[in-house]
Amino acid sequence: MIQFTRLDHILISIPEGKTAEARAFYSQVLNLREIPGEHPGGAIWFEIAGIQLHLREEPGGSLSLRHPAFEVEDLAGAKHELEQKGVAISYSSDIDGRQRFFFRDPFGNRIELLEFTN
User: Fold this and answer.
1) What is the pTM of this model?
2) Residue 90 — pLDDT band, cuts 50, 70, 90?
3) In this model, does residue 61 exceed pLDDT 80?
4) Sign of the CA dihedral 30, 36, 42, 45?
5) Is residue 14 in a domain?
6) What count of other Cβ atoms lies within 10 Å of the Cβ of residue 73?
7) Mean per-residue pLDDT, 63-84
8) Is the pLDDT of residue 74 over 80?
9) How far is CA 81 from CA 72, 76, 88, 91, 93, in A?
10) What is the CATH number of the domain that holds 37?
11) Locate the VOC domain: which residues (predicted)?
12) Buried-exposed string 35-56: b where 16+ CB fall within 10 A, e elsewhere
């Protein structure tokens, strides 16, 4: 049996030619720290809540329900900040013991933020 200990990184796709726009969104709107370096496939890496978020250009791109989910300490504050920066918020089914919402980055990637209530 595999015993997973933590989430290490998530890779999400961005359209070809959009690395600069992705870098601006993730560093300026979400205020994530970029991890410098020459990364495989021209990816850009960010530090988020003790894990790494990797973004890499790939062809294609239709909206998907795939997403990473990140726990936050102040869900209402995060929602307010994103809305102030023009990011649309959406909701899905309720889950006992947590509040959550979703948003999409400029490239259609779906991201969930959640806060445990118990």
Assistant:
1) 0.77
2) very high
3) no
4) negative
5) yes
6) 9
7) 89
8) yes
9) 13, 9, 11, 17, 23
10) 3.10.180.10
11) 6-116
12) eeeeeeeebbbbebeeeebbbb
Q: Count the neighbouring beta carbons within 10 Å of the beta carbon of residue 25.
A: 19
The structural domain count of the chain equals: 1
77: tokens are 């504050």
Does residue 4 lie in a domain region?
A: no
Domain around 91: 9-116
Distances (CA, A) of 82 to 24, 36, 54, 62, 104: 14, 25, 21, 23, 11
In a domain? residue 2: no
- Token pair recorded at residue 65: 């329900």
What SS3 state is found at 22? helix
What strands, in cross-sheet order, belong to the sheet with 51-57?
9-14, 51-57, 44-48, 33-35
Q: What is the C-alpha separation between 83 and 101, in angstroms, rounded? A: 12
> Can you name the residues that pair with 104 across neighbouring β-strands?
110
For residue 101, being part of any structural domain is answered with: yes
Confidence of residue 4 (pLDDT cuts 50, 70, 90): confident
